[in-house]
Automatic annotation (TrEMBL):
SUPFAM superfamilies noted in UniProt: Immunoglobulin
Protein name: Ig-like domain-containing protein
The keyword Signal appears for this protein: yes
Gene3D superfamilies, per the entry: Immunoglobulins (2.60.40.10)
Length: 64
């Protein structure tokens, strides 16, 4: 995130695509280069802990 996150906080990551109007978009979410989940364009961590530290990013499953 743009801002630091504190342990215990709730965190929602969103993947946004340009030039797309489809309401049923999916996203591949990665942490430190490893795929962690494929779902809608939102990923939530209900209670952030030290184990969640890392670099997160998302990609469109077909377009990259």
């Amino acid at each position: 995130p743009v801002h630091p996150v504190t342990e215990g906080d709730h965190l929602t990551l969103r993947c946004l695509y340009q030039h797309t109007t489809s309401p049923n978009l999916r996203a591949d979410f990665y942490k430190d280069g490893s795929l962690i989940q494929n779902q809608t364009t939102e990923m939530s961590i209900t209670t952030v802990s030290k184990s969640h530290e890392g670099f997160y990013y998302c990609k469109h499953p077909e377009r990259g």
